[in-house]
Predict the structure.
Amino acid sequence: MRHVQGRAGWAVKVLTALGAVALGGCAYTSNLTSPYRSQEPVADGPERGRVLYLRDCAWCHATDGSGTGRGPDLISGTNGAAMTDFMLSTGRMPINDPSEPTRLSPPSYNPAEIEDLVAYVSAFGGEGPPVPVVDSEAGDLALGLELYQENCAACHSTTGVGGALAAGPDPFDETLIAPSLIRSTPVQTAEAMKVGPGTMPVFGSETFSDMEVNSIVRYLSHLQRPDDRGGLPLGHVGPVTEGAIGWLVGVGAALVIVRLIGTRVGEE
Ligand code: HEC
Ligand code: HEC
């Protein structure tokens, strides 16, 4: 008995060792590189923006923000405070690999660190807009609805749940998807309009006045908290699910009733 246990023990040890080697091999060959980042918090103060930038951003965007083969420059186009704040507050930056998709995720920095990074990056000279001040209460809901449906719904859908931009060869290609706006904050929404991240067009101050921006933001907050007076929201996807449920539940129920109250040919 002891003998068998001893052998089983060995077999387990050998298999574990082989498993560990195989897993190590996989990790070695996979591309999931992640740069070493010190987890030590950086002390608060005028130096913090610079320290964080050099540690987490410079290897892709260069020490002076002029860009490298791994990331674009942070000076041209609409780059500036609003762009940097948008990228950091939506957790789009930093990424670990230049080919990683940039999407909404929990931010890597707290608001004070973001402010310091924004100040540091802005000093590179990007002339894009400053971080906007938004007052959605000052906006007009009806005007917001009109502007949203005219200018944003084509990409982000009438209910703000997002949608496909174009049919590409890869249906999961992130760059061909307009994201959901359900979690966007008022400031992020105004920033997106002013800087046009990724493939989104820019809606600058010559397109929308502050009042119009406030109205769109107000309407979007309304979309984010709909009161669903009509009943079940069904994911706010719109007429397709509504129609499908209408057919399945409504027409199905009608058929059952017809069957219950009707008689078949030949039945009494
Ligand atoms: C692994 C490389 C990498 C790292 C690290 C990185 N970025 Fe980026 N960054 C990119 C790439 C690639 C893009 C372009 C993304 C796109 O358009 O989809 C980008 C875009 C940006 C943009 C928008 C630029 C534009 O013109 O559209 C800003 C601003 C930005 N990064 C800031 C930062 C900051 C600040 C950090 C550090 C906290 C950082 N990035 C870390 C690769 C990186
Ligand atoms: C041509 C299509 C298009 C139009 C029109 C458009 N957007 Fe976008 N929008 C995008 C894409 C694509 C992104 C994602 C950009 C990225 O992550 O690089 C985006 C991102 C956003 C985000 C950030 C969401 C997130 O995931 O953090 C907000 C907010 C936003 N758009 C608001 C608007 C508003 C408001 C309008 C109308 C004034 C509008 N968009 C018009 C395509 C569009």
